[in-house]
Amino acid sequence: MWRNCVRLARRGLGRGAVLRPAPTVSRCGVVRGLSPAAPCSSLWNSVTWFSQARQLKDYALPNSSWSQGMMDLYSRFLEMCKDGTWKRIPSYSSTIDHIPESLKLTAEKERKETRLFLRNMDLEGVGFEYAMFLNPAEKRMVCLFQPGPYLEGHPGFAHGGSTATIIDSTIGGCAIFVAGRVMTANLSINYRNPIPLGSVVLVDSKVDQIEGRKVFLSCQVRSIDGQTLHAEATALFIQLDSTKSLQQQQMSFQ
Amino acid sequence: MWRNCVRLARRGLGRGAVLRPAPTVSRCGVVRGLSPAAPCSSLWNSVTWFSQARQLKDYALPNSSWSQGMMDLYSRFLEMCKDGTWKRIPSYSSTIDHIPESLKLTAEKERKETRLFLRNMDLEGVGFEYAMFLNPAEKRMVCLFQPGPYLEGHPGFAHGGSTATIIDSTIGGCAIFVAGRVMTANLSINYRNPIPLGSVVLVDSKVDQIEGRKVFLSCQVRSIDGQTLHAEATALFIQLDSTKSLQQQQMSFQ
């Protein structure tokens, strides 16, 4: 079954069951009220440049805890990055390091002893092991996710909150691509089948529609052979006003 | 404003804005198809007894990282436990220690190097600091939650996934009370205002309705003065068949 996945990946990520067909980008309709697409998509480029300049540790690179399944899938996606169809997204332990200096609010310029929730463990392999890839043309973000033994909910399975977290982050990354800085307004998840700890799943998210500052997205979490649907979700993200603090603008749109 | 909260707490947890009025238990309708209430509610008693027998560390007790606001609120709830209206819920680092031996599936009897997602950090105060209290008559579970600096999403604020996690756990605890072993089927969250790291919020959940194996619940996350609504959520939990593995039964009801 793994061979099927690889073969289909070689054909450019086909197979609906494994990775859904490209979302119909035209479903997004007219992008009203959003900043132009170019500055948003270039946010990721800025992040990459910024991290290289500071030589931060990128946690979205393979480590010894990654299973063979995780490694193989990662390699396939890397291969597909070569022609620019997909783009690997780096990941750091501090939230602030994902934001280019030019886009930081004044209060965000001071470094603090905080950590990004998904990168808060010192030990490799016990928490969230993941790597994200962006397909700009399809407005789609995929995350390869291997939940470690410290993410337990029911014995032997990933906690529903950890599944919500990886969905929120993946779908959020997709929203950032089209709208720059965003915030989750709604996240609705249907849990279909529990995710075994140590397994590898694909979190596959896409932009469905954009209306003014609102970005509507959806997501599926499947086993890498595509046979098991673990969860599916819809989300609404709101584009933020870069001149206001998070609290100010969150209050203003409700 | 804190004084208001305390005064109202002394009156037995009134004030809708801080902790909502008791849910109308009659809204639950007839409890059809669920196991009798007694075995479910006695699950918590079994957990307490079990932990005492093994002398496990209870993480839901105050530590030096708790702010004065967290300590004060905790003390008020402890006070309300004295007449049996509320019950403090213990919390351990391993999921398996929350399940009495008599209710464990065969595969769950072997101890593994896993950790409950919310209790996976060795350092006090950096992750999820929380304590839950159950009101059996109101079918209501409240969680006092102080998000630490390692739960960051937007700079300075709790990650949406960490908010989803504490909601899922609190609402899940409420579902366990009425239905024994359960699993999240749907979780829908509206994020209203971001939660500052280091602040204290109240996660207030209740059972709204029970239909066969389905338990419908809702939840609000508010600042301790009740003035700020951070998030609200609805959830559907499914009562599990204790004779089947998690994967078997999750497949069977969908």
TrEMBL record, chains A, B:
<feature type="domain" description="Thioesterase">
    <location>
        <begin position="156"/>
        <end position="228"/>
    </location>
</feature>
<keyword id="KW-0966">Cell projection</keyword>
<dbReference type="GO" id="GO:0016787">
    <property type="term" value="F:hydrolase activity"/>
</dbReference>
<dbReference type="InterPro" id="IPR029069">
    <property type="entry name" value="HotDog_dom_sf"/>
</dbReference>
<keyword id="KW-0443">Lipid metabolism</keyword>
<dbReference type="GO" id="GO:0032587">
    <property type="term" value="C:ruffle membrane"/>
</dbReference>
<dbReference type="GO" id="GO:0005743">
    <property type="term" value="C:mitochondrial inner membrane"/>
</dbReference>
<keyword id="KW-1003">Cell membrane</keyword>
<dbReference type="InterPro" id="IPR052365">
    <property type="entry name" value="THEM4/THEM5_acyl-CoA_thioest"/>
</dbReference>
<dbReference type="GO" id="GO:0006631">
    <property type="term" value="P:fatty acid metabolic process"/>
</dbReference>
<keyword id="KW-0809">Transit peptide</keyword>
<dbReference type="GO" id="GO:0006915">
    <property type="term" value="P:apoptotic process"/>
</dbReference>
<dbReference type="GO" id="GO:0005758">
    <property type="term" value="C:mitochondrial intermembrane space"/>
</dbReference>
<keyword id="KW-0378">Hydrolase</keyword>
<keyword id="KW-0999">Mitochondrion inner membrane</keyword>
<keyword id="KW-0963">Cytoplasm</keyword>
<keyword id="KW-0053">Apoptosis</keyword>
<keyword id="KW-0276">Fatty acid metabolism</keyword>
<protein>
    <recommendedName>
        <fullName>Acyl-coenzyme A thioesterase THEM4</fullName>
        <ecNumber>3.1.2.2</ecNumber>
    </recommendedName>
</protein>
<keyword id="KW-0472">Membrane</keyword>
<comment type="similarity">
    <text>Belongs to the THEM4/THEM5 thioesterase family.</text>
</comment>
<keyword id="KW-0496">Mitochondrion</keyword>
<dbReference type="InterPro" id="IPR006683">
    <property type="entry name" value="Thioestr_dom"/>
</dbReference>
<dbReference type="Pfam" id="PF03061">
    <property type="entry name" value="4HBT"/>
</dbReference>
